[in-house]
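Checklist before submission:
- one chain only
- standard amino acids only
- sequence pasted in full

Submission:
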Amino acid sequence: MKNIALPIEAIKRGDADELAQYGLQELTLDEIAQRNQDKMQLKQEQNDYRNLRLNEYPSVVEQLDLLYHQGYEGWKAAIEEIKLKYPKVEDDND
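Returned file contents:
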């Protein structure tokens, strides 16, 4: 199914062909609105985990220092710890 970018005009017109392109032809307006809200919530959660990770990752200089002093495995362990702390939020369509 395509990403839901609510085709408001198609809904107002009752254009079944256009709604079918979005997989929405058999849904009520409330169901379409709920899907759109769920999609926006997922995007927010995806942005949240990304921002949390970005704030916690060591700087590039610190990561290079980790590589130099602890090697690839030490660097990988430090990054993996952050990834486990803030797991990736998956989209069902990914």
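Reviewer check: Residues 8-85 form one domain.
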